[in-house]
Amino acid sequence: MKTSNGTVLPSVVERGGVRESAASAARRDAWARRLPLLPAFIYVFLVTQIPFVLTIYYSFFRWNLLKEGSSSLFSGHRFAGLDNFATLLTNGSIRTAVANTVILTVSVIAISVVLGMAVAMLLNSEVFGKGLMRTLMIAPFLIMPTAGALIWKDTLFNPLFGLLPYLLSPFGLGRVDWVNRFPMATVVAVEVWRWTPFMMLIILAGLQSQNPEILEAAQVDGAGAVQSFRRITLPLVRPFIELGALLGSLFVVQTYDSIYMLTFGGPGEDTTNIPFLLYIVGPGGGYNIGQASAIGVVAVIITIIVATFALRTLFSIFRVEARR
Amino acid sequence: MHNPLADMPFRLPERAPAVSRPLATRLAGLVIAVLAAAACSPGAGGGGGGGAQTTITVAAVDNPQMADLKNLVSEFQSKHSDIQVKIVTLPEDQLRTQVTQDVAAKSGRYDLFTIGTYEVPLWAKKGWIENLSPFIAKDSSYAPDDLIPGIKTALSYKSNLYAVPFYGESSMLMYRKDILSAAGVTMPDHPTWDQVAAAAQKVNSSSVSGICLRGLPGWGEQLAPLNTVVNTFGGRWYDAQWNAQLTSPQFKAAVTFYVNLIKTAGEPGAGNAGFTECLNAYNSGKVAMWYDATVGASNFTGDAAKNSGYAFAPTKVKDWSGWLWAWSLGMPSTSKKKDAAWTFADWATSKDYIKLVGTKLGWAHVPPGTRSSTYQLSDYQQAAGGFAQVTLDSIAHADVTRATVDPVPYVGIQYVDIDEFQQLGDQVSQEFAKVIAGGQTVDEALQKAQQLAAAVGKNYQH
Questions:
Q1: Helices and strands in chain A: count of H runs, count of E runs
Q2: Domain assignment of residue A244, given as a range
Q3: Number of domains in chain A
Q4: What's the mean pLDDT in B424-429?
Q5: Is there a contact between A280 and B426 if contact means CB atoms under 8 Å apart?
Q6: Which residues have CB under 8 Å from B67's CB, separation 6+?
Q7: CATH number of the CATH domain containing A123
Q8: Which of B23, B47, B263, B428 shows a CA-CA span of 20 to 30 A to B78?
Q9: Domain span at B262
Q10: Which tens digit of pLDDT belongs to each residue from B306-326?
């Protein structure tokens, strides 16, 4: 701060001021971008994380709506430690539910990917009435799950009035009670019907990004239809299949509505998956909030494990991309 | 506000550029959605606000009688212009869930709701619903003594009425006279289950099944008729010391009989057949007999309406095996508009309301089984002819306190009146449904059911 060099000081000050105002401008700019997002972020945070934290909290308490002295949200519950989780371990229901969830998810995703692939291939080729066909194919995904399941149960499978028993009656299968004889297969069939369009859409997007010239070149080189499908088309749409399978399985794990409508988790516990078990223990008759919360927490942990595992193994594609 | 899930092991393989980050974020978002879905279910919310003009909210079960009530609300409002009535109708299982959550969490969304004989004593004991006797005492024209005694007992706790019956029912055997007589079968007024089984097998053919019996899992569905069979066979859920009795020879005999009857002469798809499915099957002539709620007969059409005969609930050891149920109006103790709510409940369950339904909507619409005076109305007798007397006598003989051959520590005919029975009954009926579907034997199902029932029984053994 020397007065002899009168010109230096203001310039330094000025330069510093410029630097400062640039940083604060950058910060202001960042906030200007962030600010409009904040309401949405806060909203999502509140409506997802508060219930989540409460679920974890309740899972450590004994709280049954039907028992006296446990009425309000935060008072009157007895601390139960890990009792709710211990009950889960000793009770066979959760094991059945986990097994059913795995069976349901894996078979629904596997079958709907194969069917979705087939339909996508068909719609990607030049067939008559492609547009109409595509619209019709998407329809199952747009029908409300409850309504869809009800239609399957009452107009297709019903042994007295259903279409399927009617069509099969010449083969002596006219009065077969499909829903109860093959409960898991029924739920899988309905869910496959629902998820095939989803897979089809995603795979179709992949197929349409394929350059037809490459296929032509393969043809010229003497590759058959099967060969060019295996060597060219499949590797190309593989990331799309993987994405569809991952997103689909995260939703299929939560299947609840069609089970409620079709089998109500039965007969026995044959189609009780984790969400349905949670419903039965919680609001659907048990009113045991503590126990239901514990199931919810376990379901989340399992989902995280499955999602991580799926990401690591299924998304081999990123490794392939990176190697290239 | 750091997202706790960002630290979860969602890391993608290294050197995964551009695509991976948004995908990981999106996945985290999805997982949060999963969490939210898992966490949100136990929620119950809402609240009632008070206004200058009193508005009462009524949660009602979705059945024809309640639909009639909804149609006639304007009649009530023309007399009571200061009270607005909002009726919310829901299917039975959802109504039960909603109302239970509402009353347990004391959120006070409803001022009146329809509850059954199962809930009333349990909820009265917890103080969830209001004692209605003081309200009834204020209205000299209500005539509580006119209420059918069995129904009144079932809706009382410590000799006070905690709910007023809107309609009542028992169970009976309904059969097609034409189909049975074509096969040379005559049905006595008081049949035994053996007679019914023989008749069912005789008329059973490829186009018409012998009998419709509920197989749909649920304590209020399959277990209702099945429990009346268990009772009359001499079985019971618990002995006097709350020891589960589901593996007893009588219980086993009853379940075996019920399942075999369904398998040999019952409707196809019994595992999905509840009240509605059986009603449809009977109305369309696909089954010759139907053992179910007395209210079923009010819904018959066509041939079913013309050619039906009615017999009392079939028996084995114990006489009068019919069940007892009454959809009734109860008032949550959290209601802030109790006087207005009572005014409406009073009107909807009064003698005058029954006459109003008869004259406005037709006598077949009258809610049956609540008041003795209903059965003295000549118009009603004409309209309900065939089944009116069977209904009235069945209800009169149904005693929720003496339903079994051997003594039991619980009340209830087609249910065990304890909090845990909803879940227990649902689970046990699922096991029986699996037997009906051929997935396991009666013994296997009863073993599992016994374990479930024993676990519940322990709560009462102190």
A1: 16, 2
A2: 96-273
A3: 1
A4: 91
A5: yes
A6: B89
A7: 1.10.3720.10
A8: B47
A9: 171-322+418-458
A10: 889 999 999 998 889 999 999
